[in-house]
Sequence to fold (82 residues):
Amino acid sequence: MCKCNLWIRSYEIIATGNNCGLMEFVSDSLSIHGIKEKLGPNSTLVDYFRRQFGKPSSARYKKAVENFTSSLAAYSLVCYIL
Fold:
């Protein structure tokens, strides 16, 4: 058995019709497109993480990368299962 430390946040979704609905807004979130607009078209997630969380050797940077990878893994599994 794998004891992976994965993190996922559930969202509230309200169906308003057969093919439509409302999804909870997540504050302080950015899309890849938003990051590229903010940092430039050739920027990467690494550039964003360095700018937001400091040097890759810092504890803050390492924690941010750990949080990102654990949630990315969890959402990837959910999407694969669904």
Notes: Residues 75 and 81 are 10 Å apart (CA to CA). The chain has a mean pLDDT of 89.
